[in-house]
Hints:
Elements: H1 2-6, H2 20-29, H3 36-39, H4 45-49, H5 58-64, E1 78-82, E2 97-101, E3 120-125, E4 130-134, E5 141-142, E6 149-150, E7 162-164, H6 172-209, H7 214-235
Antiparallel strand pairs: 1-2, 1-7, 2-3, 3-4, 5-6
Amino acid sequence: MLADEMAHPGVLSSDNLSDIYALVAQLARDGAMTDLGIWFSKQDPAFDLWRQDKPTSWWQLATILNPTTDSSSAPLALAVALFPSGMSLKDLPAKTPLAWTRGLEPAGTWRDDSPYGDWGGFIVYADGSLVQISRAIHGKLVKFDTTEPTSNIAQALPPGTRVSEYKPPPDMAAKGRASRRAVWVADAVPVGGAILLPIFILTGIVLHRRGGNPAIVTCITAACICLAVLLFGMLV
């Protein structure tokens, strides 16, 4: 399980681990969590804009994240909890978060510069479960050592825990919105065309049989639908 690999010796404790990059590099050198899909998301605008050659193996990842180099530009998709010294997995309640999609705000929503924007993200818990969250947490977390619900992930962590994640540049939020809008339009246009084309044809046939002008009606309908698609694309 993902949580078992994250509980690899030295990972849960913040001893000798300055940030998420040191953690990932240590895991890669030790052969744990070597699936690059865990750490990077191709849907992440920051990953798409990353100038460095993308790693294709866990060894390349360990080299990129060498502690002697500045690796803070690597757009890791996850945030991780670096727990206080001496803490082990058995010390944690089952629903203590270990890692989650970066960009999570105290209110329980994700920023626009997170890998999936305000669509949501994922959380990995100490019991090994991985949960997908749509849009917002809405009180699905539990305050540490209590049964009280919370949306603030910091409140679900032990006192003294540090959270580490990649810090996108200030303009990444706008780039993220533009990228997701382009993807939405690229996906929506073929689907919309496949649905609307038969409708237009049928409308034309009906109007023609009734003596109307199908060309004008069809053009007006198409223009209205295109406008609606564009306006919705600007809002997502």
